Give the backbone structure.
Amino acid sequence: MNHRHALVIGAGPAGLMAAQELAQAGCRVTLAEAKPSAGRKFLMAGKSGLNLTKDEPDAAFLAAYGASAGWLAPMLAGFGPQAVQNWARGLDQEVFTGSSGRVFPVAMKASPLLRAWLARLDALGVTRHMRWRWAGWTAQGAARFETPDGPQERTADVTVLAVGGASWARLGSDGTWTRMLADRGVDLAGFAPSNTALDVAWSAHMAPHFGSAVKSVRWQAGALTSRGEATISARGLEGGGVYTLTPALREGAGLRVDLLPDVTHHALNRRLASRGGKVRLSHWLRNGLRLPPAKVALYFEMTQGAALPRDTWVATLKSLPVRLTGLRPIDEAISTAGGVRRSAVDEQLMLRALPGVFCAGEMLDWDAPTGGYLLTACLATGRWAGQAAAHMALKAAARPGT
């Protein structure tokens, strides 16, 4: 089938996986990337330890994708947490599972894995073009690119788009491709931030606590809850504890935090009663409950120093409203929701409006928390789209006269 040409646009995890599947099926593959090198967002994510996936039961893993779970289920069944681990090992990158179930390469970095992956693609004959920015299609259906050597065009039997979402534009995901697909009648959902930090207009009293982590709490927004920690920053709150609540916060849900989730209302009321009738709130929080300074500061910040009646102390402690001014800008978000709607593609991730063009990765309208879920779904959708595109090319090659 080596006379069939496949074009992959975007050299992030989804695009690299699609290119691998196409090349292994026997297609001649051209991989075009707008940035000077492949996997730039992948490398950035790996700077603090590359979280490949989450090792947990299938049902729990799938549930993390929320409303997107039904759409992604067959793709994740084909390439889930165990397959991700086997894939990494196949690139000579041993992995380990942390106490939380998160899976990391032993090297902890993304660069060794990416180097091995690119070497595999080279061995499969994939042709890579860096600094090739996709600029749409010609009237004859050839893909157009802006390159350092001037405009270029490439025709292909099948194309996989893996051009990212709309966050971290400097790394390649700038969302500018949406106008090209919208002009071709592709149904798109507007981009929105996901896994993003929160804006809070702190008073000057919070400055000593910037950089402090709020730990051992339960955050809640709408129906979503999280037991992760968050860091108090000069601009607000950031960290896994609040990132996972972004879908509910985007819809306008308020944020609340239980500062002592492992102690019941009843137990706290007993403790308060045992302190006598003259205890001050600040003394009880610091000395009676031994709350860390960051938690005490957050309590008083969000109650604005009000003289709370004693019978509300415990209820406020267990469900403290956190006053937000909004979400951080979309370009600062770890990921985005929105993009190519489910209705715009068939079950093989081929665009209904553009036969022979498939989509993969974060450009599709799905959402997931951090913790390995994002990367696993990018790999799984890239594999799915690559296999489907290869199958289409194979069928075309088998027809008489082709």
Summary: Residues 373-398 form the longest helix (26 residues). The chain has two domains: 5-193+335-398, 198-327. The chain has 14 helices and 22 strands.
